[in-house]
Amino acid sequence: MAEHHRRQRGLCFPGSRIRSHHGAGTGHVEQRIGLASAGRIDLAPSITDRIPLADAADAVARPEKRIGDPMRFVRTP
Asked: Which of 19, 32, 34, 40 could disulfide-link to 10, CB 3.0 to 4.6 Å?
């Protein structure tokens, strides 16, 4: 993992990036990814929305403007 991704509190996978805030550190995100990869937890029910990459600016504004339920959303290509 590139150091600049750690500073941004995100994880980078080929073609994907996982970002965290609301007090969760990189270690917490890595732990959840490990549990999900092992099939021990299913994160799908916690995703509140899927937003097209073309609407990335809207996706970034959602938590700040409290639009919808922006707890966990995924930007899709």
From this structure: 19
